[in-house]
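My current task is to audit a protein record that another person submitted. Please read both lines and tell me whether the tokens look consistent with the sequence. Do not assume that whoever made the record got everything right. I have pasted the whole thing underneath without changing anything:

===
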Amino acid sequence: MEDKTKYIFVTGGVLSSLGKGLASAAIGALLESRGLTVTLQKLDPYINVDPGTMNPFQHGEVFVTDDGSETDLDLGHYERFTHAKLGQDNNFTTGQIYHSVISKERRGDYLGGTIQVIPHITDEIKKSIRLAANGVDIVIVEIGGTIGDIESLPFLEAIRQFQADVGKDNALYIHLTLVPYIGTAGEVKTKPTQHSVKELRSIGIQPDILLCRTDRYLSKEIKSKIGLFCNVGIDAVVTAKDVDCIYEVPLVFHKEGLDNKIVELLKIWTRSPRLEAWAELVQRIQNAQESVTIAIVGKYVDLTESYKSLNEALYHGGAVNDCNVNLVFVDSEKIEDGTCSDMLAEADGVLVPGGFGTRGIEGKICSASYARENKIPYFGICLGMQIAVIEFARNVAGMAQANSSEFNELTSDPVIYLMLEWYDERTGSTQRRDESSDKGATMRLGAYPCRLEKDTFAYKAYGEENISERHRHRYEFNNDFKAQLVEAGLVVSGTSPTGDLVEIIEIKDHPWFLGCQFHPEFKSRPMDPHPLFRDFIKAALEFKKGRVR
């Protein structure tokens, strides 16, 4: 059967953090608005097998898919902007590619041949690209890194070959580059873009479309100059203008004619784009009548990319409540018993996100205590749920030494402990771990079902008894202490279907206090905000109004 899927390869030049992931996601949204089916893939040049063990300060957030893959944060952008359901075939790294090739060599698959970057590594990369297709109309492939990096050369060679394999009508190259405005000169400069394209062409890739990241719309004269020196038509030079709201990017790209140019080059017939929902979303965000301040208490606060999906989910919750969300990042290491009230005084809601390790733990516990005692809406996610349990055990249930065995292996009251086994509904098998297990890909990962109790914050939010959420943890609520904590007033509002694992906890006599072991931020979408974030922001707004009165 003929493969009718077409491919778009997105590369970046000049410098990192220009927004290739966001640009790729916005392209996906545009093509979906024209009635096409899309999926997206990220090819990362680093040698790690996946980002699961990487420090968030270096790599940012680890995004978890339904199938349990630990992936690059750009996959979060892809899922938020499109309807694509992503998994392990949507993110490949140099580590994975080389691991696969070396494993084949060890098995003798190459019949004694000499293994080389070309063709063996490049063939493996091309095979990985095809895995993502799965019958969709368009596959958008983002190449990580920046043109000129030595690590990305095999990927660039592979996509150069790929167009030759499938034909020019079935694959195109989009290059994101920088066109800076120099204030002292009073003009934009095209030279960085010229050099970036020159570097790309030197390895055999002629970009079909240029996305020019800049702070203003480019004039026809500037576009003409870029097109002349970079060997593209003026209609293929697209302004990728800075925006206040990232969900405006598809609208800016459409205004610049990007989607028209893509379907023209790929020779696709589509309907006119339907972007009304995106325009309405942007208008709702920009014209919100209310605002709330949410304190995010964590230890990665100096790099907000560490909480990318979390931040966006909070904004989604604000949009549906006609409310701007102001995020205040609070370093948990700087919180002490005497300073908690000062650092959280302006917060209308307190959120403690996921994390690992002992650093800053007592500050997070202090924050949970402050929110509980002062009736401030509290949302604990993964570690944040565990923090809430520890705080409640210490200060309400009378277990002064309560802790997690992650932080104190000798604690007399390990209300949170290392999971040694759990049932995996996806594979129908029992997973087992211990202290000696490898760190990589050994947590409870991916989507698992959860059963909710009625008459709880959780049930009110979801409106149904059975849900599915994505997980990423190896420590869990210790059921040996469940009865004692419930008797003291803790509410267990969500569990695994068998009741073995506690998924959600709440506190009675509080406006909104909820902790969940899973990561709801991974499933929040701008057009479909996650119900827990929706209700958390609603509670924060009500708290603010009550405080003003």
